[in-house]
Amino acid sequence: MLIKDFRQGRVFLASLDHGADIIGQIAYLADKKGIRTAVVSGIGALSRAELSCYDQAAHKYSSIRIDHPVELASLSGNISLLDEKAFVHAHAVLGDESGRTLAGHLTSGTIFAAEVCLQELLGLSLSRSADPVTGLNLWSEQK
Ligand code: ZN
């Protein structure tokens, strides 16, 4: 188990740009505000999206393309460092007009409207590196 202690830093609420990619907008906001570690949450609506699901045996992501408008019922994730750059890791629950949901790792999404909260965490750097067991870039001890 890896445990890191942080202090609460700044908290940002942002209404993201219509038509932009949601992951790119969160990364841009983090970069603009100098955020290296944060908890991310959000709600809104996307005009299209791509989720992925990790095949734990094959160590590969499979893609789920959604080419119609959906509610961004819930976005949760975090920001930490990958190759010394702020990296956004987000999961989402997306709902259609009948209330059915799809959920997974949020690869991309075109914003119709999105309100996000970034809660900055202050302390030692939290970095990702390749994990041999899962094949994922997971949080790791500093090298
Ligand atoms: Zn994920």
Please provide a written account of the structure.
With 143 residues, this protein is mainly beta. It has a single domain, classed as 60s Ribosomal Protein L30, Chain: A, CATH 3.30.1330. Strands 1, 2, 3, 4, 5, 6, 7 and 8 form an eight-stranded mixed β-sheet that branches. The chain is built from one helix and eight strands.
> How are helices and strands ordered from N to C?
EHEEEEEEE
Percent helix range = under 10%
Beta-strand percent range: over 45%
CATH superfamily: Hypothetical protein, similar to alpha- acetolactate decarboxylase, domain 2
Radius of gyration in whole Å, from Cα? 15 Å
Question: How many β-strands, per DSSP?
Answer: 8
What is the total number of structural domains? Answer: 1
Ligands, deduplicated? zinc ion
Q: Report the span from N to C terminus.
A: 17 Å
pLDDT < 50 stretches: none
Look at the structure and give the CATH class: Alpha Beta
Average pLDDT reading: 96
Number of helices in the DSSP assignment = 1
Q: Biggest β-sheet, characterized?
A: 8 strands, mixed
The name CATH uses for the topology is: 60s Ribosomal Protein L30, Chain: A
Describe the structure concisely for a colleague.
Helix content is 8%, strand content 62%. The chain is mostly beta strands and 143 residues long.
What distinguishing features does this structure have?
single chain; mainly beta; binds zinc ion; 60s Ribosomal Protein L30, Chain: A; 143 residues; eight-stranded mixed beta sheet
